[in-house]
Specification:
By secondary structure, the protein is of the alpha/beta class. The protein is 28% helix and 23% strand. The chain has 10 helices and 13 strands. The protein has helices at residues 15-24, 45-48, 69-72, 89-103, 121-128, 162-176, 205-208, 222-234, 267-277, 323-338, and strands at 5-10, 30-36, 77-82, 106-111, 141-143, 156-158, 180-190, 213-214, 239-246, 253-261, 284-287, 302-309, 312-319. Helix 1 (15-24) links the parallel strand 1 and strand 2. The longest helix has 16 residues, at 323-338.
Length: 354
């Protein structure tokens, strides 16, 4: 792996960081060079992620943020994944890119937080309640899922939120094909890993293990992102009504979307159109039967089911929030930015039963 591109992961002990490391351990062209932790610098990475022992990361310790200088100033290529909280990411990325530019290092950033998901900094401020810390960097980011972005990209990319990934994969073809009215209802159920490593009252295991509940109906931050990305396909932002739910499982997102067809259509007709739309998409399968979470958990795949009756179109979509919805989708983006095969390091089979 001497020619492998060195990788810096920001967000050290977090769940998405751990998932990045799991996937990167098997990547043929990327090599983990540093994992930055604000709380565990100097500690072995495999002490925080024991399931990663024995896959090439033994001996690697978490780095202080200040210990990146030799990588950022190398003058070569550098891949950076930001798996840090929103708000904290933009200043970190801005500083790192400033140093890289000064040294002539070709750095590519994939942001897995929310900081670069909107092209308009006022929209970020409206949704997240604080001004954007690096608005001058926004234009250098591609945004959306790789399946929906054609043509030149980068030099950096912002992976959408996990609920957003499932919703836009499900709805984008219908808007791009011009067969639906400009409004969509999205019901999404997420597993507990979507809330990150730090427990909170509503996300704590006993509070959610054997129950199911909606939260923040019509008031979740991902709703604005869905509008923005679906607006690209629809030629103007559709109305999106989103109700997230907390599900009694660890990994995965199950989204159910209700769209209104402009004319009555049969399931077979929609199914064929969706299959053509995603025919070049390595990670997206479309079928008539509704998919199950266990079809995709542990993989970078999305499975979509479509059903039509009269003017009603129902689309279901399942992804793994930690893979297609963050770390895996992020690596897919990085492969694209670096000119690597888009599926490199991302073809692990799923677990099936867990
Ligand atoms: N979980 C998901 O399914 C998911 C899906 C899509 C997107 N995301 C996004 O991905 C990012 C990471 O999510 P996560 O679930 O991994 O969260 P997490 O488990 O809470 O991990 C985030 C990590 O970032 C580090 N950190 C915390 N505050 C920081 C700061 N001020 N500056 C620098 N580093 C800081 C901490 O690691 P150290 O203490 O080691 O520094 C923390 O463990 C978030 O922006 C999240 O919204 C998550």
């Amino acid at each position: 792996m001497t020619d492998a591109v060195p990788v810096v992961v920001l967000g050290g002990t977090g769940y998405v960081s751990g998932e990045l490391l799991r996937l990167l351990a098997g990547h043929p062209s990327l090599r983990v060079a540093a994992v930055v932790s604000t709380s565990h610098a100097g500690a072995p990475v495999t002490a925080s992620f024991p399931h990663l022992a024995g896959c090439g990361l033994d001996g690697l310790v978490f780095s202080e943020p200040s210990a990146l200088a030799h990588l950022v100033r190398s003058g070569g290529r550098l891949a950076v994944f930001a798996a840090t909280p929103h708000g904290a990411t933009a200043p970190l990325v801005d500083g790192l890119l400033g140093e890289a530019e000064a040294a002539g290092t070709e750095a590519h950033v994939v942001d897995l937080s929310a900081d670069f998901r909107f092209s308009d900094p006022t929209r970020f401020a409206a949704v997240y309640g604080s001004p954007h810390a690096a608005p001058h960097r926004l234009a250098a980011f591609s945004r959306g899922v790789p399946e929906h972005v054609t043509g030149p990209v980068g030099p950096h990319a912002a992976q959408p939120g996990c609920f957003v990934t499932a919703a836009v994969l499900a709805a984008y073809p219908a808007f791009a094909l011009g067969i639906v009215e400009p409004d969509v209802f999205v019901s999404g159920v997420t597993g507990s890993s979507g809330s990150g490593r730090t427990p909170a009252a509503n996300t704590h295991h006993p509070e959610r293990r054997s129950t199911l509940y909606a939260y923040a109906p019509l008031n979740h931050r991902h709703e604005a992102e869905m509008r923005s990305l679906l607006g690209v396909a629809a030629g103007g932002e559709p109305d999106v009504a989103f109700v997230p739910h907390s599900g009694p499982f660890v990994r995965g997102i199950h989204a159910t979307l209700r769209l209104s067809l402009t004319a009555p259509r049969q399931t077979d007709e929609i199914l064929a159109a969706y299959q053509v739309f995603y025919s070049g998409a390595r990670f997206v399968d479309v079928a008539a039967a509704p998919p199950k979470l266990t079809d995709v958990v542990g993989t970078n795949r999305a499975r979509i089911g479509v059903t039509a009756r009269g003017r009603v179109l129902v689309v279901t979509c399942v992804i793994d929030n930690l893979v297609k919805g963050s770390a895996g989708g992020g690596i897919q983006w990085m492969n694209r930015l670096l000119g690597l095969p888009e599926a490199a390091g991302l073809t692990q089979p799923g677990l099936g039963y867990l």
